[in-house]
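Deliverable D5.2: sample structural annotation.
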Amino acid sequence: MRQITITAPQGSSAEVANIAFAVGISEVSISEKRILDASGSETIKDSIELDLGTPMAKAFMDEFTSAPFFDLDKFSIAVRQPRALVCREKLSTLARPLVEPSVDLFEELWQFSQVTYGFVGRILIGALLLAYGLVEFRLLFMIAGLLFIPLLPLMLSVGFGLWTRQWRLAAQGLFSLVVAMCLLVIGGLIVAVLTNPPVQYSDFNSLGTGFLISFAVGIAAGLATADDVGRREMIGLAATAQIAIIPAWLGLCLVLGFPATDATPPQRRVIALLLNIIAIVIAALGTYAAIRIKGAGLNCFKMTSKKAKRELHRRAALSP
């Protein structure tokens, strides 16, 4: 369920309402609000509110943000997820959880893909716990470390960005993933200096098995992120287990040496890591395509303000 609040230029509420009615929404609430800016000037703007089920919210947001008159400099949108809505809409329609608006997914993935000191700290601490679990083969330490390492949103960002042609998001997700891989290797190196050989963990999947598991995880993750009731935590753990173990293991082995009992060359482990990442990205991309996530409603984020104005004016002039 969604509550959408739009702040729009005075007099433009009719255009917004027409889009709502066109996608099947029966009513909208319109009021006026006073806007004060830092210079002390005051303007009156329209406030449009809608209480919707999730699929209807997606349909409206896709149409509204791709409309010729939509301009980020003039309109602002707040999307909230209430615990409950009591209205005349059928409960089976109102409570339908799939599919979330594209903007919700887009901004959520952008948040998770930011490289901040919190991001670095979580992954490095997780890498230390994971590496210690690997060198001593202690499962609880490995699970604890994996829970701290948020790799799944980074791969989903790449898949989502490629499908919706949001290249900046895809690049940001890829950059953050590379940073995360480096931190995992560093965590392994640090633990290796403080412990003794050999590295006891050797429970790796074959290339084919790892690829299939990662592909299934990517599909489940794509569905979970687009679903209000999707359980993302355990899927994230499954994805991280497929990806994070290998770089941490490599960091350990660079110092402690590769186990004599492991006949598989290190290059094959790196290939397995790359294949697992590719499998999750491709599976997520295909899932977003299958559930009809539209990138057109996100085009407004691609351009600077001036470019957006010129493009929107051109589209408005060409429209009948």
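Annotation notes: The two ends are 34 Å apart (CA to CA). The CA atoms of residues 68 and 317 lie 9 Å apart.
The annotation will be released with the project's public dataset once the embargo ends.
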